[in-house]
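queue> holo job accepted (flavin-adenine dinucleotide)
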Amino acid sequence: MAVHVEMGPSVYEQGVNRLLESYRAIPPGATVRLAKKTSNLFRRRDPHPHPGLDVSGLGGVLSIDATARTAEVAGMCTYEDLVAATLPHGLAPLVVPQLKTITLGGAVTGLGIESSSFRNGLPHESVTEIDVLTGTGEILTATGSNEHADLFFGFPNSYGTLGYSVRLKIELEPVAPYVELRHLRFTDLDDLVSTMKQIVEKKSFDSTPVDYLDGVVFSADEAYLVLGRQHADDAMLRSDYTGSDIYYRSIRHDRADSPKIDHLTIGDYLWRWDTDWFWCSRAFGAQHPTVRRFWPRRWLRSSVYWKLIALDRRFAIGDRLSARKGLPPGERVVQDIEVPIEATVEFLSWFLDTVPIEPIWLCPLRLREPLPAAADPARPWPLYPLEPGRTYVNVGFWSGVPATPGHPGHTNRLIEKRVADLRGHKSLYSESFYSPDEFATLYGGEHYADLKARYDPRSRLLDLYSKAVRSQ
Ligand SMILES: Cc1cc2nc3c(=O)[nH]c(=O)nc-3n(C[C@H](O)[C@H](O)[C@H](O)COP(=O)(O)OP(=O)(O)OC[C@H]3O[C@@H](n4cnc5c(N)ncnc54)[C@H](O)[C@@H]3O)c2cc1C
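queue> job finished
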């Protein structure tokens, strides 16, 4: 049977009914928000007095069509659950964001990226149809060619301010059971970026296909590209980074003239960054051998660290510990930015000289080709205006620096300015400091105002600036 039903239609319909009932229960003057257990947002959010939307019945995979290579998924389905359902069919979403609890709806409205993005673009580019609960309380189906195509193209980077996705239909791609990793070491960032550029263009390196590509910068003279190739050879010895061994450390080696080779199952490859939240688990001591020995394996995952961060924020634990040592409080610098590949070395050199954070994650991306037929060829996804035909590099850094007294967000503001000067953008999942005008210029403001007037005319949902910059 090509179509595999995962979640019965009546279960899904009940979930939709509960969602609509909860919408109707929110008083007319109150802001409509999600009531959801997990999150990967990193900005502070104001507490709110009213109950949110009940999305408890919208967490599953509805069906997988292995012949058509598509899946229908409820809006709050996590990628962890989706991948668990697709891999037995030898299929995977075209882009699987690295953190297991990121949901389809979250990645499409808040963007996502991974090492397949140089060939598959961003998660929203493999969506073919979305049902959206808009600010008016209706559920509308948006596709790239129907009467709600403006919502379809405007949904990515709207962060739930035009509506919440209830159901998504997405494309899947075939995957092999294993991934061979080649870790190429570079002592010069120019060399690294020019090699990355060649691989993005050719989708191969040394005549070997490259299916996945990302990289890590430890310092200006120690950086790596990680090239992944899918294969089906089960004779290869495979590593396991879900226990005592730590993936990001495994990348490092001394040989600039030859790569280090490693093998993982496809599942372990897709989740390689989740176990230690890239490298951020070290802040909780989880990488210390003694602590790690006693740290339950099931707690080695990003959602657990996220809860620890929430506690740290609530009780200002980090700042209190710093104060005890006579150190100033910290400024959180947790950001993903994108600059054109030609500007990447300039950005990295500036960053390494200015911001004391390492390692740094690199991930190349290009919008998928061809664009959907009805897309604006100059600005297909207007709220996050990447140019078609151009390669960008996502640069991720997730840590903190000493705060600058009297200048809240000093380092974050420097980064925003540098990124804008280099014609880049930054993701909005974390803190932002833009003025309303800067924000509107960078994130499709005029277009957004039209969408907001059409799909949320009574402002039942927050607007993007209030959410992303004012942390409401
Ligand atoms: C440290 C860190 C590193 C990150 N690195 C990456 C990365 O490398 N790759 C990557 O892909 N992403 C990364 N992200 C970003 C992440 O993908 C986005 O924050 C994404 O929006 C989170 O999805 P979520 O499902 O957890 O949504 P939530 O965190 O719950 O919500 C995010 C926003 O989306 C809205 N939203 C949630 N669900 C829906 C829905 N169904 N419909 C409409 N709006 C909705 C919410 O209202 C909220 O404004 C990173 C985030 C952090 C904190």
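queue> The CA atoms of residues 146 and 152 lie 9 Å apart.
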